[in-house]
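[#protein-structures] MJ: dropping Fucosyltransferase here for a structure pass
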Amino acid sequence: MDPTRAVAAMAVASLLLIIIGSRRTPRSCRNFPLERSCPSSEQTCVSREKLQSFSSRNSNHHISPPSPYLLSRLLEYEQHHKRCDPLSKPFDRTSKNEDLAQDCRYIVFTPGNDELATTMLSLSSSFLYALLTDRVLLVDFDPSMIGLFCEPFRKSTWLLPGEFTFRDRARSAEFRQVFSLGHLMRKQNQKQDQKLQADTASLLFLYLSMDYDDHDKLFYRDETQELLKNVPWLVLRSEQYFLPYFFLLPCFRTELDKLFPDDKETVFHHLGRYLFNPSNQAWGAIARFYDDYLVKAEQRVGLEIKVGNPYETPPYLMLPHILKCIQEESKILPRLQQNNTTTRITILPSFRRKTSKVILVESLLPEFYSELKNMYSTRPIADGEGSVSVRVYRTSSHEGMQKSDRNYHNMKALVDVYLLSMCDVLVISPFSTFGYVASGLAGLNPWFLKNPGDYETKPLEPACRRAVSPEPCFLFHPGEYVPNAVHHCRGRLGPVPVILYCEDFVFGFKLGNLKC
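AK: finished. structure tokens for Fucosyltransferase:
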């Protein structure tokens, strides 16, 4: 070969390698926490297309569709996000304080802890806040959360770049002391000045975790929201589902009534289904388990059991109350004959078909699954319970304790919560954010088990009670006056939005509907 042509061929080959390499790892992606988190190569998100076909098939279960206005606002938000995302020029200008007057204002979400469920609850609240205030939502995930979800906004990213200006400082304790809204409010009180100079700040930290103080709680006021409008960067940290309080603020109420006009108990359902599409790796595990164990069942029962301290409340103490709930009070599952009862063999006609039910047990302790499986596989169904076959399966999270610092565990937790959300009936533990997420994604009113501390002190009380709404509970709200639900019904007909006290925590409140 002619040496000149050989050199030219090598140059072309090198150029192709450079082009291919640039497609694999674009320059704009080099600052992301992990290279695989960069959205440069558009990958099909399987769960976004397939998830609807795996929804609950209970004919009595109806979920109202999202409102046309919500769908249009989500479309507008996606376009806004694409204009201002970390791969855009406006982001570079705003992050360098070169152009603070343009329409790219941001809220950066940082998780309050490492638990998957609490992150999903607080992140959905942060997204609704971004919608209400025309901000762009970015997330600051640590490596244990990377790769769990598809990018929710197509051809864009919500991940904060790894080398962003204040990324490391935002995780420090000093950041709250210097940049927080609560610190600004505290200084203002000390100066006894009537006007708060928040409009001159380029960045403020919103601390909305469970241990926030009275100055941090001033976030939940109309006048504070007015002051925050001109701050280009807000960094929010929380592990709470705090969006119910937005429905009590006059500055947001009109827009919220348009976004969710008829049904206030499906807010998390619609936002969660939009934001949290499992990654292809997670969806593969979900679909395989569903096809192997759940798809043929006529009723799928999800049982989520959370034990804070197994030494204080051992499984053997909890199991009788759990059985009382699922067999007697809710009548979800058939009762069994006692061990000392002589089994009567009844020959059924061949056309008598058994109703198939599946119990999906999710707990960090394996004892509950083992006991239920042994009972329903070795003891016959009690007389009068009909012809029922019951199979018991468990999810993957049987590790004794939650190891939420590992990406592998978070992946399994995501698989488990989505499998529970595909059930027709849910029985969950009180104060369980994992159960909140499963119920909210499913759009099901769950049965709440009794508080573990009441098993010995209040043995005669009901073992469980039915929730009136699938909405998660705002456990530690600001504590100011919450309007009485009855007041909302005066002069109104049909379902109206109300704030309800949580069934599992008397001091918390949640969204719901009430027929007057």
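MJ: nice. Residues 3-41, 341-351, 483-496 have pLDDT under 50 and may be disordered.
AK: one more thing. The first strand starts at residue 106 and ends at 111.
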